[in-house]
Amino acid sequence: MIYLDNSATTRPFMEVVDSYTKASLTFFGNPSSLHRMGTEAEQLLLKTKEQIAGILGISSSEIIYTSGGTEGNNLAIKGTAYQLKGRGTHLITTAVEHASTIEAFRSLEAEGFKVTYLKPGPTGQVTAEQVKAALTNQTILVSIIHVNNETGIIMPVEGIGELLKGYPKVRFHIDHVQGATKVPLRLAHGLIDLVTFSSHKFHGLKGTGFIYKKDGLRLTPLFHGGGQEGALRSGTENVAGAVATAKALRMAMELYEERHDKLLHLRNQLLEGLSEIEGVVINTPKELAAPHIVNFSIPKMKPEVIIQALSKRDIHVSTKSACSTKRSEPSHVLLAMGVGKERANSAIRLSLSYLTTEDEVSKALQELQHLIPELLEVVK
Ligand SMILES: Cc1ncc(COP(=O)(O)O)c(C=O)c1O
């Protein structure tokens, strides 16, 4: 089996699953309970936050556990909008966000907020100048995806953060779900207010994740109940999931140090091999993209045909983002980049992880080199 759909989800590290099992069986007490088992679970939960904070260079009080990226984006975006609506009702994001961001903004629009969706240039990036031009005295939030989940393109978030330093009333949120452990994001310098993480994208478990929320900043909670996670995320804490998240983050960051260059090399090998196949158009600009995502189109072909043909050979890739692949609309990301409907309709995404081998990439490339001309012959 060759798995090249790591942007949809990654295989959890065995050590992560082991740590989850161990913590579930040993520390099953409710962290809110007053007895020893409750206290031990609470202490373990705090320890996981200290571990994550140590890795990210932040304070443990700045971590709020969630069920993953979708919840994290919703909490950061809606939580800010509701908290600051007395100050202003204008929000800025981009036209190339993940569905969990776009739909959160759409729901806010339905409630009366005004949203500017910045359109990227042909490189897929938006600029700090565009953000500056969109700011009004009503703006309360700017939310930008760091690494695009379809194309791998990296947004210039540090430049946007620098710009927003001059606008202290505007909060800055980053969807770092695809960037985490692949593309560095400095949190310690304080330019960013809120950041979303999802553990299953870095070999943790599905249904786990967290947001970074700068100390002192207030959000309106979306869930109400027992007041866990500083009253921002009520519900009995997933202590074992937190243990697994801390473990996955540590292991994936170690792999970043060891294997980042190798991952980049594999990605480049794929890009070069694909660009030599007739009928293929590359959508991922090498210099501007993360090391694990390759997006290309075969304008004359339905992507499902390639995906099924590869799947029969036990090679697993996807069209666009996993959340929207079941809908056969063109990619909103590629459309916003202005590549045209045909290319936006025929995109395929290959996504790697630190566990992907050279052999797997070579085999997948060989299959594509055979398959694409064969299938193009059929649709002629
Ligand atoms: C950029 C981005 N943001 C958010 C999400 C949602 O994360 P989750 O699957 O943990 O809800 C994803 C998932 O694909 C993503 O790629």
Automatic annotation (TrEMBL):
<keyword id="KW-0808">Transferase</keyword>
<protein>
    <submittedName>
        <fullName>L-cysteine sulfurtransferase (Iron-sulfur cofactor synthesis)</fullName>
        <ecNumber>2.8.1.-</ecNumber>
    </submittedName>
</protein>
<comment type="similarity">
    <text>Belongs to the class-V pyridoxal-phosphate-dependent aminotransferase family. NifS/IscS subfamily.</text>
</comment>
<feature type="domain" description="Aminotransferase class V">
    <location>
        <begin position="2"/>
        <end position="362"/>
    </location>
</feature>
<dbReference type="GO" id="GO:0051536">
    <property type="term" value="F:iron-sulfur cluster binding"/>
</dbReference>
<keyword id="KW-0479">Metal-binding</keyword>
<dbReference type="GO" id="GO:0016740">
    <property type="term" value="F:transferase activity"/>
</dbReference>
<keyword id="KW-0408">Iron</keyword>
<keyword id="KW-0411">Iron-sulfur</keyword>
<keyword id="KW-0663">Pyridoxal phosphate</keyword>
<dbReference type="InterPro" id="IPR015424">
    <property type="entry name" value="PyrdxlP-dep_Trfase"/>
</dbReference>
<dbReference type="InterPro" id="IPR015421">
    <property type="entry name" value="PyrdxlP-dep_Trfase_major"/>
</dbReference>
<dbReference type="InterPro" id="IPR016454">
    <property type="entry name" value="Cysteine_dSase"/>
</dbReference>
<dbReference type="InterPro" id="IPR000192">
    <property type="entry name" value="Aminotrans_V_dom"/>
</dbReference>
<dbReference type="GO" id="GO:0046872">
    <property type="term" value="F:metal ion binding"/>
</dbReference>
<dbReference type="InterPro" id="IPR020578">
    <property type="entry name" value="Aminotrans_V_PyrdxlP_BS"/>
</dbReference>
<dbReference type="InterPro" id="IPR015422">
    <property type="entry name" value="PyrdxlP-dep_Trfase_small"/>
</dbReference>
<dbReference type="Pfam" id="PF00266">
    <property type="entry name" value="Aminotran_5"/>
</dbReference>
